[in-house]
Specification:
The protein contains 25 helices and 16 strands. By secondary structure, the chain is α/β, with parallel strands linked by helices. Helix 21 links the parallel strand 13 and strand 14. It binds one DNA strand through helix 2, helix 4, helix 7, helix 9 and helix 14.
Length: about 600
DNA sequence: GCCGTTTTCGGCCCGACTGTTTTCAGTCG
C-alpha cells in the first residue's frame, strides 16, 4: 500500500509538470494537495478504507480530480496520467528542482534543449559548458547551477529546536546588548517553536543601519558571510544559517507578523486583507492595487508596495486588530484554524511558560541516568520546580539496568530519607516515587501490581515491539492503560525526530481509553521526542483527556527542557487546566488516586 | 484543480532578487 509521502511526491511532481506547461493555478493546487497529504497524521490508505472516496474529499486541498488520482494510486499503486506525462517528459523533477535556482520551468527547458533528465545529466551538461549556450540562460546562470550542484552534497539539514536554542539565545542576548539595535526579535520557526528549524530569522530595528550590518556580519560567531545589507545572512560555525532583516520602526508590526507566521498563515492573513479591499505585506496595509491593465500607476504599486496610503503598524496587535481579529500567539500561526477562531475572539488562554510546577519523568544513576536522586532533586529546586517523580526504567529494559520489585522498594526508602531531609531543613520540595514500566507485547506490565500500587506515579511506555499491526498495537496499549496503577502513558508514539517513525495505533481509541481509565498522556519535552506532537495534543485537549509535560531527564541539565514541552503544549492549543503537573503535588496525587 | 458567512463561477498571496532582458520571467521564502 502506498504511503502518504510517496503519494505526496507524485502529486507534487504532477504540479511540476503543469508548471512546465505554463498552466496557471494547477501547479499550486497540486502543491497544496501534496502539502496537505504530507502533513496528515493518518495514512491515506486508512482514511480511504474508513471513509472511501468521500473520506478523501474531506482533506484540505483535495477535490474531485485529485481524490480520483489518490484513489487510483491506492488501488493500483500507479497513476496513468502521471505515467503518460512522465513518458513524454522523462524528467526526474524532484531531483532536479532540489538544486537551488532550478524550478520546473528551467528543468523543462533543460530537457527540451539538452535532454537533461536527472542530476547526472545536469552535471555532465554543466561540465561541458552547454548551458550557457541556451537562449535565456547565459554564463552566470551556468556558474550558479554549478555552484548549487556543489553545495548539494552538504545539503541543508534541519536542526532540533532544543539543541539550537541555547546557541541562538546567547546570540540574541549579545545582539541586544550590542547597542546597535533598538528592537530585535528572533522570528520564523524559532518563534513558533517548531520541533525542527531550517534557519534562523532575526528581525531588528537598527540605530544606524550601516553600523548594525557591519557589527552583525563581523561577529566572531560568523563562519561565513553570505550576504551583507538590509538583509544579511551568515552561517555559524556549526552550519546553521542566521538571517538578519533590518526594518524601519514604523512597520515593525507588519514585519513581525510577516516574519513569524508560516507560509499558510501569511497567505490566509493576506486573503483576509483582500476581503477588506486591502493588501497586506511586510510593510503594512495598503489599499488594493488597481487592475494591472491600468498601466504605469498599477504597475508601480504592484511592485514596490511603498505607494501612497500605506498604513503602518508599530505592533502586531495593531495588524491583527485592523484585520478584525485578536492577536494570535506565535506558536499557533500555522493556518490551522487560529485565524477563524481569533476573528470570533475565542482563542484559548494557552498554558504559559513556567506554568509547569513539577517534572514527572526523571531518570537517575539507578539506571541509565548520570546523576543521583539528590543531584536531580537539587537541580530541580534550582529551576524552581516544586516536585519531581523519580521514574527509573524497570527490569525488562535490560540495557539500562532496569529495576526489579526489590530495587524499587529500596529506592523508595532512599527517597523517603531525602524527603525527610528536605522537611527538616525546611525546603519546600518533594520527591515522588515512581517508575517507567514497560508495556509487554501482550499489554501486561513488567512489574507486579502490588509493587506499583505503592508508588506515587506510574508511567507506562512502549520500548519494544514497535512494529505490531495497528489493531494489535492499539489493543496492547489499551490493556496497559486499563491497569489501575498506571497514571501516565509516557511518550505515546515513541517517535524520535529524524530517526524513528511513530508506532501505529488508533489514537481515537487510545484517547477513549485514557479518558475512561483516567490516564494522562505525556508531552515528552526531550528535544528529539516531543511526543505527543502538536496535532495529537489538540485532539487530546478536544477529547478532554488530561496531559502532563515531562523532560525525561537523564542528566541534571536536561531538566531545563521543560520549556520545549510547554511550547509543544501551546502549539497543541492546551490550556493550563489541561496539564496536570501545573497542579501542586498534593492536588496531582489526589487526581492520580482515581 | 480547488473553493465558497457575498460566489457552483471566477477568482486564486506578496515582494525581493537574479539574470537576462530593454520591460520580464523564473525562483524563492
Amino acid at each position: 500500500m502506498m504511503k502518504n509521502i510517496e503519494i505526496a511526491q507524485i502529486l507534487r511532481e504532477l504540479g511540476g509538470y503543469y508548471e512546465m506547461k505554463n498552466e496557471p493555478f494547477k501547479p499550486r493546487a497540486y502543491e497544496k494537495a501534496a502539502d496537505s497529504v504530507e502533513s496528515l497524521d493518518e495514512q491515506l490508505s486508512q482514511i480511504y478504507r474508513a471513509g472511501g472516496f468521500k473520506g478523501l474529499l474531506t482533506l484540505a486541498g483535495v477535490g474531485q480530480g485529485i481524490a480520483e488520482h489518490i484513489e487510483e494510486l491506492l488501488q493500483t499503486g500507479r497513476l496513468k496520467k502521471y505515467e503518460a506525462l512522465k513518458r513524454k517528459m522523462p524528467v526526474n523533477l524532484t531531483e532536479l528542482t532540489s538544486i537551488g535556482g532550478i524550478g520546473a520551468k528551467t528543468a523543462g527547458e533543460l530537457y527540451k534543449k539538452l535532454k537533461v533528465k536527472n542530476l547526472k545529466d545536469l552535471k555532465k551538461a554543466v561540465a561541458g559548458h552547454k548551458l550557457a549556450r541556451i537562449k535565456g540562460f547565459g554564463k552566470k546562470t551556468e556558474e550558479n547551477i554549478a555552484k548549487a550542484l556543489d553545495v548539494q552534497g552538504t545539503f541543508t539539514k534541519r536542526y532540533l529546536l532544543g539543541y539550537i536554542y541555547p546557541i541562538i539565545e546567547k546570540l540574541r542576548v549579545k545582539l541586544e546588548n550590542s547597542g546597535k539595535f533598538t528592537k530585535l526579535m528572533v522570528g520564523g520557526s524559532y518563534r513558533r517553536r517548531q520541533e525542527t528549524l531550517g534557519d534562523i530569522d532575526i528581525l531588528a530595528v537598527a540605530k544606524h543601519e550601516k553600523q548594525a550590518i557591519e557589527y552583525f556580519t563581523n561577529l566572531p560567531e560568523a563562519g561565513r558571510v553570505l550576504r551583507r545589507g538590509g538583509l544579511s545572512e551568515i552561517k555559524l560555525f556549526n552550519g546553521i544559517q542566521v538571517d538578519l532583516k533590518i526594518v524601519p520602526e514604523s512597520s515593525w508590526g507588519a514585519a513581525a507578523v510577516y516574519f513569524t507566521g508560516d507560509l499558510a498563515h501569511n497567505i490566509k492573513m493576506r486573503k483576509m486583507a483582500i476581503e477588506r479591499g486591502l493588501k497586506l505585506s511586510e510593510y503594512g496595509l495598503t489599499p488594493a492595487s488597481p487592475p494591472p491593465h491600468e498601466g504605469e500607476e498599477g504597475r508601480r504599486s504592484r511592485r514596490g508596495g511603498k505607494s501612497r496610503g500605506i498604513a503602518k503598524f508599530k505592533t502586531e496587535e495593531e495588524v491583527y486588530n485592523s484585520l478584525g481579529m485578536d492577536w494570535i500567539p506565535p506558536e499557533l500561526r500555522t493556518d490551522s484554524g487560529e485565524i477563524e477562531v481569533a476573528q470570533k475572539g475565542k482563542l484559548p488562554k494557552l498554558i504559559d511558560y513556567g506554568d509547569v510546577r513539577g517534572d514527572l519523568q526523571v531518570q537517575t544513576n539507578w539506571t541509565d541516568g548520570t546523576a543521583s536522586i539528590e543531584e536531580m532533586a537539587r537541580a530541580a529546586i534550582e529551576l524552581g520546580r516544586e516536585y519531581i517523580a523519580i521514574t527509573d526504567h524497570t527490569k525488562t529494559l535490560a540495557m539500562t539496568g532496569g529495576l526489579d520489585e526489590k530495587k524499587i522498594r529500596e529506592q523508595g526508602k532512599e527517597i523517603d530519607k531525602m524527603n525527610a531531609k528536605f522537611q527538616i531543613s525546611n525546603v519546600k520540595f518533594r520527591i515522588l516515587k515512581g517508575a517507567e514500566v514497560n508495556i509487554l507485547k501482550d499489554g501486561t506490565l513488567d512489574i507486579a501490581d502490588s509493587t506499583l500500587a505503592k508508588l506515587d506515579v506510574v508511567g507506562a511506555s512502549v520500548h519494544s515491539h514497535f512494529k505490531l499491526s495497528r489493531e494489535d498495537q492499539t489493543k496492547r496499549i489499551i490493556r496497559a492503560l486499563s491497569n489501575p496503577n498506571v497514571d501516565i502513558f509516557f511518550h505515546p508514539t515513541t517517535r524520535i525526530i529524524q530517526r524513528r517513525d511513530p508506532i501505529d495505533f488508533d489514537f481515537v481509541q487510545i484517547l477513549k481509553a485514557a479518558k475512561k481509565y483516567r490516564v494522562a498522556l505525556e508531552i515528552n519535552a526531550y528535544p528529539d521526542r516531543l511526543d505527543l506532537h502538536d496535532k495529537m495534543i489538540r485532539q487530546a485537549v478536544e477529547a478532554g483527556v488530561k496531559l502532563v509535560i515531562n523532560t525525561d531527564a537523564h542528566a541534571t541539565k536536561h531538566l531545563g527542557f521543560i520549556q520545549f514541552g510547554e511550547a509543544q503544549a501551546r502549539r497543541g492549543w492546551a490550556r493550563r487546566g489541561d496539564i496536570l503537573n501545573t497542579l501542586s503535588a498534593d492536588a496531582l496525587l489526589k487526581y492520580f488516586k482515581k
